[in-house]
Amino acid sequence: LRASVAVRAEKQNKEGLERCFQPQASFKVAILGAAGGIGQPLSLLIKMSPLVSALHLYDIANVKGVAADLSHCNTPSQVLDFTGQAELGNSLKGVDVVVIPAGVPRKPGMTRDDLFNINASIVKTLIEAVADNCPDAFIHIISNPVNSTVPIAAEILKQKGVYNPKKLFGVTTLDVVRANTFVAQKKNLKLIDVDVPVIGGHAGITILPLLSKTRPSVSFTDKEVEDLIVRIQNAGTEVVEAKAGAGSATLSMAYAAARFVESSLRALDGDSDVYECSYVQSELTDLPFFASRIKIGKEGVEAIISSDLQGLTEYETKALDALKPELKSSIEKGVTFAQKKE
Ligand code: NAI
């Protein structure tokens, strides 16, 4: 794995920006919530992908201008805009990957779960349309609380008879990106080499970075472990507080989501060496959904990597036990919401 990460990084560096101007594949990507804080920079980053032939931007408002603006970038993909419920279905037709950053973000003092009441309904509506129009697409859920919105999506897809657990992903890449950055800073490592798996879920203590599995292998004092884990778990709140009411992480989130989209597209394109962490249906623990490292292939989740959970430190074992009740209740909350009769 470590060798393949390094080889991939080197390859990407060599190819550099030139790649953006040469079409290499022709996948269609839809972004639902494309005019938002995450949606806009994410659309820009995906517009730079040589693997994309069409970029469908959907939002309930303000998406026309975003699409007009982006369409002037001289990269191969065609940009189309779709506004409002009436155009939602068309935005999804023929799409290979659907990314969902629609919904409200946190303000200072809020937990991700405080967003549940609004975002649960938004995700439900959008997933119903995905089920009706592109049931075979990879679905990337960014809208919080991810710990609940992914189980909601799974239930809605089941109700529609099109649930494929291998193609439903909760995007937790930002936790990995943050862990990699903070560990590299703390241990003075070359950023490109650092890879920290993050397991569990995507809120507070359910975010569990496995520092003992950091590549390259590196040792931490107890104090460093404590400081790093707390910082990674609270990194979202760090941004929410710095933005002081103007939203949560958007740019780093767009970067992380674009990485996850690019990985998915490479997998769809036949690359057999694609690994990411993601919150998916899983049998790794007794919980029905769990974030861990996965292997992505043409058909979605090809394997859930169990080796990261072997040989955990005492600290990590305790943290894993501690996160389970919270994650379980977030999953149940999502399932109950989705099963509720109108
Ligand atoms: P934002 O408020 O800037 O943008 C949200 C966009 O969604 C807006 O353009 C809005 O018009 C649109 N929207 C609202 N209802 C919609 C609907 N029914 N259909 C389509 N679009 C709709 O919010 P931001 O900052 O972009 O965050 C979006 C979500 O991403 C939030 O729920 C936030 O908590 C979550 N998030 C997730 C992270 C992760 O790691 N998974 C990290 C950071 C944020």
UniProtKB/TrEMBL annotation:
Residues 28-170 form the Lactate/malate dehydrogenase N-terminal domain. GO terms for cellular component: mitochondrion. The chain holds residues 84 to 425 of 430 of the full protein. Homodimer. GO terms for biological process: malate metabolic process; tricarboxylic acid cycle. It is an enzyme of class 1 (oxidoreductase). Residues 172-337 form the Lactate/malate dehydrogenase C-terminal domain. Belongs to the LDH/MDH superfamily. MDH type 1 family. Its EC number is 1.1.1.37. This is malate dehydrogenase.
